[in-house]
């Protein structure tokens, strides 16, 4: 893969860079470093084209400058039913993650908007999502958490990606098509997450989502929350604020728990270090108190 040469980094701007076809996945990390150190580029870069399995993928990305900021990937509804990365629910999720310090990427599946290719009934879209996550991880290699979220059809793709990528720490599924797609591949589900639907959803009944959640809850060590938003339909019309509140509260809870767990792990590691140091000191003390060994062949008394 050819990397774009950056000969005059301080003159780069987001607009000029993103319009350049020579900027590739390999050069993006260098570009962000240039922007951060020059002070002349914004970290929010609205227009983005990334390399996909069958050509370009149109995307939107918000970059947080902290090297360990968490990352999130958002997947949109069905490509053949009007789903795009600018869907109002996708946009709401994007900004909910953004407000919590995530570097967030949303993109159009193949054949949607400026993304190249044609709808592939799932396998191709899963490859698109994997490529997008690859790109995001190259940009943020030190991210402390990795999340994925999907809307409607996007939840089916998101859950398949979750099964293939153990680095994903959590998920958000909004209006999962549990009555239309087979989710039996979630056996076992490798991460905890949140299922959300509206009680006025005429596409996916609440009972179907509840049944899927109940199946996933039976797996040890995994906690799947299920929230039902009163009055919300499949598109959450006039209920986006309620959706954002529910998702935001869940993320706040999970992030707080993760921080607590991280602190506990640090304390446990510090305690293990103390115990190892005590053990080394005891061994040294025992060696110092032991009598010197008598060399073989020496006699204890003269004849």
If you had to describe this structure to a student in words, what would you say it looks like?
There is one protein chain. The protein has helices at residues 14-18, 25-38, 88-98, 123-139, 153-164, 206-217, 240-289, and strands at 44-52, 55-62, 71-75, 103-107, 146-151, 170-174, 193-198, 224-229. By secondary structure, it is an alpha/beta fold. β1 and β2 form a beta hairpin. The longest helix has 50 residues, at 240-289.
Gross CATH architecture of the largest domain: 3-Layer(aba) Sandwich
The portion of residues assigned to helices is 25-40%
Could you tell me the number of beta strands? 8
Task: State the name of the first-level CATH class of the largest domain.
Answer: Alpha Beta
Full CATH superfamily name of the largest domain: Alpha/Beta hydrolase fold, catalytic domain
* Number of structural units classed as domains: 2
Determine the number of helices (DSSP H or I, runs of at least 4 residues).
7
CATH topology of the largest domain, anyone? Rossmann fold
Radius of gyration: 26 Å
Beta-strand proportion: 15-25%
Low-confidence stretches: 1-43
Largest beta sheet: what is the strand line-up?
1-2-4-3-5-6-7-8
On the 0-100 scale, what is the average pLDDT? 84
What is the first-to-last residue Cα distance? 85 Å
Write the element-wise H/E pattern from the N-terminal end onward: HHEEEHEHEHEEHEH
Global geometry: elongated
> What does the main sheet amount to?
8 strands, mixed
Structural class: alpha/beta
